[in-house]
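User: Could you write out the 3D structure of this protein bound to NAP? I've included everything you need below.
Assistant: Certainly. Input first, then the structure.
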Amino acid sequence: ATESQEAAGFHPNQKLKLVISVGDHSGPMRVLVTGGSGLVGRAIQHIVKEEGGGKEGEEWTFLSSKDANLMNMEETRAVFQKHRPTHIIHLAAMVGGLFKNMRVNLDFWRNNIYINDNVLQAAHEVGVVKVVSCLSTCIFPDKTTYPIDETMIHNGPPHESNFGYAYAKRMIDVHNRAYFQQHGRYYTAVIPTNVFGPHDNFSIEDGHVLPGLIHKAYIAQKEGKPLVVWGSGTPRRQFIYSLDLARLFLWVLREYNEVEPIILSVGEEDEVSIKEAADAVVAALGFKGEVVYDTSKADGQFKKTASNAKLLRYLPNFSFTPFNKALKDTCDWFVANYDTARK
Ligand SMILES: NC(=O)c1ccc[n+]([C@@H]2O[C@H](COP(=O)([O-])OP(=O)(O)OC[C@H]3O[C@@H](n4cnc5c(N)ncnc54)[C@H](OP(=O)(O)O)[C@@H]3O)[C@@H](O)[C@H]2O)c1
């Protein structure tokens, strides 16, 4: 073990004790955000702007796929060498809802494996001291006990609908542990539940459930038709507002010093059924028509209730935006930006 590993409590052939301190970084903190143009990336941009460009001594750069195709190692190295980051928030990924996942599991697996391997290796090569990557609660085992917590990622196969995405994301945790063990790197990951907010992908076919419902309800309202919800409406989900997630990301980047991942989620009591989510969209958009459930469509995993106990141990006073308020703000944003929104 290196000195820093020993200082962090790591001994070869022992279960890793991954509580670490990123104490060896001084000087300006150059933060590079991959996937900076997506739903989560735009939310982080918003919060950093609210802080007046980040805290003193921080410089922020947000990348999109136009800056570099991170599936390509040479492009990844070149963009990292250009910006010389000291810290990275790694969001870039091939992302999609249930129905897109079911169609192209191979693409989800390969694209995400390439992106993650390139980003973490290039980060190591340019000497990045901390990387915060992004997993998801939909990568946990399908058959599990509830609530799910951070120790259970690798305990069994994921739901068959998204196994490509799920296994690729799980491997980030393997990367992080191995970069720590072999190189003493402090690379970690967060595990958000379903994210929603402004700048989401509102595609009905390929997007996640909430933005898809918002878009469908918007069209149904305009055309005077029923809102058709896919599936039975019974599956349950925890939703986190992108701006709340962004605030938590900044805390993880600045203060969270474990290699082990941390679930970023509202409480178990705030889980809602798809029917409740659809009702909330109807209320937020003032939709007056009929709501019908197309039970010929897949439901996906029934639930993936996650525990935010670890987060609350660190941040007992964090206050989440109430779901209905966050949803109303998202619907208002979608209506105001209908022409340019991703859909
Ligand atoms: N949305 C959710 O509900 C959710 C839940 C849990 C975890 N997550 C995770 O959160 C992270 C961000 O997700 P999101 O919802 O913000 O996704 P998103 O809106 O689809 O944004 C994806 C981002 O990745 C970039 N990107 C995709 N492929 C790339 C490539 N080959 N090279 C470079 N950049 C590439 C995109 O750039 P362009 O804009 O140029 O295309 C975009 O900035 C992901 O890691 C995702 O797995 C999301």
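Residues 35-41, 64-66, 69-71, 91-95, 115, 134, 136, 192, 194-195, 201, 208 surround NAP (CB under 6 Å).
User: Perfect, thank you.
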